[in-house]
Design brief:
By secondary structure, this protein is of the alpha+beta class. The chain has one domain. Helix content is 25%, strand content 21%. It is built from 5 helices and 8 strands, in the order E-E-H-E-E-E-H-H-H-E-E-H-E. The strands form 3 sheets. A 4-stranded mixed β-sheet has the order 3-8-6-7, covered by helices on one side. Strands 1-2 form a two-stranded antiparallel ribbon. A two-stranded antiparallel sheet has the order 4-5. Helix 4 crosses helix 5. It is globular and about 40 Å long.
């Protein structure tokens, strides 16, 4: 881990499961099950500037091919270099393919817990706004049992 820091909002995708997961606080959630709840939530469009902290330096959500922590800031500070970095190739490809019509998900407290590649794409594109769904609470039914 870079600088020995614990990752902020860290999400490696599968966490050893055969389905996508996301971590919120100390709990691990099944994204597929959360999608069922997201379908019933309204979509809001918010200013991208309201989420600048989520892509700030020191916030890591992924690991690169070398196993090092990686965050949007690392890619956005020099996108041209990021595109050429073989350790970042998976995340660069995902960001390039990100569909901004698909809303990101946030907790009621504002934590982004699904859609960091889309959020990074929006900052890369210098978008004015981004679509979001706010979960007032997260359903216990979606918690991954260990």
């Amino acid at each position: 881990m870079r600088d020995g820091k614990s990752p902020h909002g860290y999400n490696d995708g599968l966490h050893g499961h055969d389905f996508e997961t996301t971590t919120v606080g100390e709990r691990l959630y099944n994204v597929q099950l959360l999608e069922r709840f997201a379908e019933h939530l309204p979509t809001q469009e918010i200013p991208l500037s309201a989420l600048a902290e989520a892509v700030a330096k020191g916030n890591y959500y992924w690991t690169d091919r070398n196993g090092d922590l990686l965050g949007p800031y690392d890619l956005l500070q020099d996108w041209d270099a990021a595109e050429k970095n073989s350790a970042y190739v998976d995340h660069v490809a995902t960001i390039k393919q990100a569909d901004l019509s698909n809303p990101i998900w946030r907790t009621a407290e504002g934590q982004v817990f699904n859609g960091m590649h889309r959020l990074t794409r929006a900052f890369l594109d210098k978008a004015a706004t981004i679509k979001t769904k706010i979960f007032p609470s997260l359903p216990d039914e979606a918690i991954v049992k260990s």
